[in-house]
Design a protein that fits this description.
- With 294 residues, this protein is mainly α.
- It has one domain.
- It is 48% helix and 9% strand.
- The strands form three sheets. A three-stranded mixed beta sheet has the order 3-4-5. Strands 1-2 form a two-stranded antiparallel sheet. Strands 6-7 form a two-stranded antiparallel sheet.
- A hairpin with a 6-residue loop joins strand 6 and strand 7.
- Helix 2 packs antiparallel against helix 4 and helix 4 crosses helix 5.
- It starts with a helix and ends with a strand.
């Protein structure tokens, strides 16, 4: 089998998995509540320039959401969501020729919809405990963030790469921190490595408690920890812990943060519904510029 045939087969398998994993997870029935978009006349396109504008304006350097800027960029966000509704690996498979394009697509979809759901929770007082189960149109079907997460976990297991799920960004503190630009296939692997380091270095998203001697990891990383450990065992032999195995993927700076956590128990974060919204910025005496307050 030639290289091109191999890559096409791998792409086809990933596209099939992106359909089957949500079905097997019970994500075929619309969740409640549901969001509907007017997509009549919208031409499919892989363009993510509207999402780029939103991320650039509404995401802080540490991955939090600037709510006022998010509200101001609603036209761009809605334009992007309508494009995602009619474009995707199953709706327009010809536009997703390699597996990296499939993964980048779902990262971008997850970011865009997590921002829209965060806006609805903050501005329209939507129930934060229902956000992940809220259904919306994407890739020619109805899905939810929970369904997308099932898909990404399935792809992680299919590819043997825990980063596919663990590095999925979103607007919750239980996610990898949001970046300031969309994902593209060309530099996906490099960006995943950057995202993994940003996650571990972010004290709000990746919590290490000295008092409890515990490492609280985001739920997607927790769900694929066996994939992480299996790869560590394959490369270095048995006996590794989650913290030790994770260190083998990190930059020296991120490794430093985990040094003191060696031997700590690793548990799943419990506050899955907390949003990564930037606090109010106020001028405080004795400080230069504004500081964030709750």
């Amino acid at each position: 089998m030639s290289y091109n045939q191999c890559m096409r087969r791998r792409r086809d398998i990933l596209c099939l998995c992106s359909i089957l994993f949500p079905l097997l997870a019970g994500c075929t029935r619309p969740a409640e509540p549901a969001i509907y978009l007017a997509t009549a006349g919208v031409a499919p396109s892989p363009d993510v320039s509207a999402l780029a504008s939103v991320l650039n304006a509404a995401v802080t350097p540490d991955g939090s959401v600037r709510l006022p800027e998010l509200v101001k960029t609603q036209d761009d966000l809605q334009r992007q969501l309508r494009l995602f509704a009619v474009t995707g690996p199953s709706a327009t498979p010809g536009q997703f020729g390699v597996s990296e394009q499939v993964v980048a697509y779902w990262y971008n979809v997850r970011m865009a919809w997590s921002l829209e759901l965060a806006r609805r929770a903050e501005c329209e007082k939507a129930d934060p405990t229902l956000l992940r189960r809220t259904s919306f149109p994407v890739d020619g079907r109805r899905m939810s963030v929970d369904c997308i997460d099932e898909l990404l976990v399935g792809l992680s297991r299919q590819e043997g790469d825990f980063r596919i799920a663990a590095c999925a960004p979103g607007a919750w503190l239980d996610d990898a921190p949001l970046p300031n630009r969309p994902f593209v296939a060309a530099d996906l692997f490099t960006r995943q490595q950057e995202m993994l380091n940003r996650l571990v270095l972010n004290e709000k998203h990746f919590v290490i408690s000295i008092e409890q001697q515990s490492v609280y990891v985001p739920s997607l990383l927790w769900r694929v920890r066996d994939v992480l450990l299996a790869e560590y065992t394959r490369q270095y032999g048995p006996g590794g812990t989650v913290v030790v195995a994770l260190k083998s993927w990190l930059s020296p700076l991120a490794c430093v943060r985990l040094e003191n956590a060696l031997g700590y128990r690793v548990v799943e974060q419990s506050a899955r519904d907390a949003l990564a919204i930037q606090g109010r910025m106020m001028y405080m005496p004795g400080n230069i510029g504004k500081v964030e307050v709750d």
